[in-house]
Design a protein that fits this description.
This protein is mostly helical. It is built from ten helices and five strands. The N and C termini lie far apart (66 Å).
Length: 248
């Protein structure tokens, strides 16, 4: 007699492959579950990657969903993680074609999905900098919001995403080049925003636990630019902790 684990495995295999035998249900009944599973996965993928879905259309997205599920079957009962490998799948499947940029758009949308389930920590105000001596400021390390995601792309994916928040959006000219930006959790959902290159470099350095002085050097900031960047950080509620790195 087959064990429960073996029966579950046979059922899961039959959900993905009509040729797979399943001792749990007859073929006619199995087809209902198979169709429901296929639709659920496709709709989950479309919910996670709405702009990719909008740009390619229903028919092509359905084909992509079938191919993706065949190569990356879900291994969890939590549907949230089902799209984790979709950007990598698109990068390989669309490599060298006119739609290779969709993989980077998918990466941005996956960061948005990750951000949506991250916690938000109480943010510090700019006055917190007053707790440190001037000699300590360049050795400050910033703890940024756990939901913050930074993304740099060779394509204008932030512009594409913003433009496609309504139906019938016009295509974005891919020749406009690279963009970089952030995704950050808000009360009403993740916020996406493009960033100037040097501000992006500054945030990336801080997120990697570079000191304030090193991040300033990485971004090539002068004093006024640093003040503007710090004002942006605190205004956006990104800073949730400060500490001083011990001298080398």
């Amino acid at each position: 007699m087959a064990s429960l684990r073996e029966l579950q495995g046979a059922f899961a295999a039959a959900l993905r492959d009509p040729a797979a035998a399943c001792a749990v249900l007859p073929p006619a009944n199995m087809s209902v579950y198979r169709n429901n599973a296929s639709v659920t996965f496709r709709e989950t993928l479309a919910h996670t990657f709405p702009v990719v879905h909008r740009r390619v259309g229903d028919d092509y997205f359905r084909q992509l969903a079938v191919l993706y599920r065949a190569g990356f079957p879900s291994s969890s009962g939590d549907l949230h993680g089902f799209g984790r490998d979709f950007p990598a799948f698109l990068a390989e499947y669309l490599d060298g074609g006119d739609y290779a940029w969709l993989a980077d758009l998918a990466r941005l949308e996956w960061l948005r999905a990750e951000c949506s389930v991250e916690k938000t920590v109480s943010a510090l105000g700019a006055e917190a900098l007053g707790n440190y001596a001037s000699a300590e400021l360049e050795r400050l390390e910033f703890a940024l919001q756990p939901s913050l995601r930074l993304h740099s792309s060779s394509y204008p994916v932030f512009t594409v995403w913003q433009a496609n928040q309504s139906e019938n959006a016009s295509p974005v000219d891919q020749s406009t080049g690279n963009e970089q930006g952030m995704v950050l959790a808000r009360d009403d959902g993740p916020e996406l925003a493009s960033l100037a290159p040097r501000l992006f470099s500054f945030l990336s350095a801080l997120q990697s636990r570079a000191t304030l002085g090193d991040a300033m050097t990485t971004a090539g900031f002068g004093e006024q630019e640093l003040l503007e960047a710090l004002a942006f950080l605190f205004r956006q509620g990104m800073v949730c902790g400060l500490s001083v790195r011990a001298p080398a």
